[in-house]
Amino acid sequence: MEYFSKAAQYAPKARDKSVAGLLYDKMAIVYTALFDFDLSLNKTQMAATAYLEAGDSSYYADELMRMLNTEIVLGRYDSASMLVENIWKNKDRIDSVQLSSLYSNTLKIATYTKNPHIDSIISGYRSTFIRNENLVDWLTVANAYCNSNDYDKAEKTAVNWGLILQVW
After folding, report:
1. Distance CA 149, CA 74 (A)
2. What is the pTM of this model?
3. Mean pLDDT estimate for the chain
């Protein structure tokens, strides 16, 4: 970490903002491994800013998704919801894997906050990936149905996608 800290002193002066983004990203990973999530979020935000300045939309989206996942794990659903809104506004910058992750995280937040629009989120998720359903996070979909007390749909989803064996 000592070398990361030394390198971080020079990162703001770097001509190549992608390199600065990479440095901050790796520092965030170390802080996550140390369970210092607030510092990890700080470094992830710095990485996102650097990637945005570099015009690297894919890595920028990755950093926003990492922040989103961390906020969800910490149970900070208000912060997570704001990140989701920001990412949805910029969804043209993300690839299909990131879009699936965005839908999955949107669904997780909706589930945890008892959002009444879970069915419409699932419907949008499924219709977006109708040609590539392997990208859908079916466990999250089944969990959302279960938390909405729609146990038949939860079971059907889990069985259809091999998450569980047929319940008799």
Report:
1. 25
2. 0.83
3. 90
